[in-house]
Write a structure and sequence with these properties.
With 457 residues, this protein is of the alpha/beta class. The radius of gyration is 22 Å and the shape is globular. Helix content is 32%, strand content 21%. α4 runs antiparallel to α5, α4 runs antiparallel to α8 and α6 crosses α7. The strands form four sheets. Strands 6-5-4-3-2-1-22 form a seven-stranded mixed beta sheet. A seven-stranded mixed beta sheet has the order 7-8-9-10-11-20-21, with helices on one face. The two termini are 18 Å apart. The chain folds into two domains: 266 residues, Ribonuclease Z/Hydroxyacylglutathione hydrolase-like (Metallo-beta-lactamase, Chain A, 4-Layer Sandwich); 170 residues, Rossmann fold (3-Layer(aba) Sandwich).
């Protein structure tokens, strides 16, 4: 087999890995590049091989940096199956059409207000394109070996979001494992990442490869931010990933209210996708730690606002209150309107609760920028900006190393991807020095031959 790196090299987005076995070509993950403009422009470039040559896509999870390019791939001629876990399929059915819809809205807004350099501005793909791609989803339960052509693959839980999985593929006598995105063993809602015993080759993520999550008490830090803001009569605005993060936030808010650690403020979950994702949680009890009763309580924690009219009504209210809205890095969606409304007021708080990729509005606010660009205009950021690291759904460096230590023998080679250059290099160094494994950070387009029956080098 040959492995070619077509994304997630030098960046945490755009995960795409090409496996070639004879004439068989399989793509592992099919993500969008996100963040800086130069990265986003990669989404507009032609795919580096004819999409019709691909036999299948194996998808580790539903986040757009792993799945969001699928509508373009299908529109370019890919006709094969897209293999994923059942919960990943359910999430893709809401994430991908929403992605197309948001891109259509943004193009329409840019054309209306004339702030795009392109005339006319066009969406990367549409909701209709996404709906077509969804028809090619094929669900495969975790732990059940499946085959495509001469390659066998098996999913194991990765604990990152609902349905997330590691993927082990075997062909031509060699086994390669893709970590996808690894979650955290102590997550209060999701099940922990499952160990992998062995592989000839390994591709591992490095989002937090150079740091450890702060040993903060998440609920204490969350309560402190809410109570400070409530005392000022302000609004807590939380840009949140709709899948997993929003549900964990609701779990924490309910726990804090139950024990009187925060006042009973109005809470709004203003994201149709997050509302649907919460319902998907209830349908997949095998993926998380919550009981049926806890799922019901989770949904009752917030007022669910599905319609755009209800969303606009929130912005006409006065604080104190809490608004949870997508997207998690403030790259699009309803959160932008809430930031326009509340970011300029120093009584308010913007609470960042997850990884903020370089070049996103979330990263700009986290790094202290005093304005952000929204809908073609500069919006002042005078609100207090608070970052909670304890809610991250990504394993930190120690947690990644802990997962790697479950391997019963070292892979012949470990490829460190899905990280900015600093974190990727730091994780590579730790893998080499602490585990004694051979690890590299691949470049875009790099091609590696996977030798059969390699074993340790």
């Amino acid at each position: 087999m040959e492995l070619t790196f077509l994304g997630a090299t030098g960046t945490v987005t755009g995960s795409r890995y090409l496996l070639t076995s004879g004439r068989e070509k399989i793509l592992v993950d099919c993500g969008l590049f996100q963040g800086l403009k130069d990265l986003r422009l990669e989404n507009r470039r032609p795919f580096p091989l004819p999409a019709s040559e691909l036999a299948a896509v194996v998808l580790t999870h539903a986040h757009l940096d792993h799945s969001g390019y699928l509508p373009l791939l299908v529109a370019s001629g890919f006709e094969g199956p897209i293999f994923c876990t059942p919960a990943t399929a359910d999430l893709c059915r809401i994430l991908l059409p929403d992605s197309g819809h948001l891109q259509e809205e943004e193009a329409e807004r840019a054309n209306k207000h004339g702030y795009s350099k392109h005339s006319p501005a066009l969406p990367l793909y549409t909701r209709a394109d996404a709906e077509v791609a969804l028809e090619q989803l094929v669900t495969v339960p975790v732990h059940r070996p499946s085959t495509v052509g001469g390659i066998e693959f098996t999913f194991r839980r990765a604990g990152h979001i609902l349905g997330s999985a590691t993927a082990a593929l075997r062909g031509d006598g060699a086994t390669i494992v893709f970590s996808g995105d690894l979650g955290r063993a102590a997550d209060p809602v999701l099940l922990p990442p499952e160990p992998v015993a062995e592989a000839d080759y390994l591709v591992v993520e490095s989002t937090y490869g150079d740091r450890l999550h702060e040993a903060e008490n998440t609920q204490t830090a969350l309560a402190d931010a809410i109570n400070r803001t409530a005392h000022r009569g302000g609004v807590v605005v939380i840009p949140s990933f709709a899948v997993a993060r929003a549900q964990v936030l609701l779990w924490h808010l309910n726990a804090l209210r139950d024990r009187g650690a925060i006042p009973a403020l109005p809470v709004f979950l203003d994201s149709p996708m997050a509302i649907e994702a919460t319902d998907i949680f209830i349908r997949h009890p095998e993926e998380h730690r919550l009981s049926p009763a806890q799922c019901v309580t989770l949904r009752a924690t917030a007022t669910m606002t599905s319609s755009s009219d209800d969303s606009k009504e929130i912005d006409r209210r006065r604080g104190p209150m809490i608004i949870i809205s997508a997207s998690g890095m403030a790259t699009g969606g309803r959160i932008l309107f809430h930031l326009e409304r509340f970011a300029p007021d120093p009584r308010n708080t913007i609470l960042l609760v997850g990884h903020q990729a370089v070049g996103t509005r979330g990263a700009d606010m986290m790094n202290g920028r005093d304005h952000i660009r929204i809908h073609g205009a500069d919006v002042p950021v005078r609100a207090e900006v608070v970052t909670l690291h304890g809610l991250s759904a990504h394993a930190d460096a120690d947690e990644i190393l802990g997962w790697l230590k479950h391997f019963q023998r070292p892979p012949r080679q470990t490829f460190v991807t899905h990280g900015e250059p600093g974190p990727a290099a730091a994780l590579r160094d730790r893998i080499e020095h602490e585990l004694g494994w051979h690890a590299t950070v691949p470049a875009w387009g790099e091609r590696v031959t996977l030798e059969p029956g390699a074993g340790p080098k």
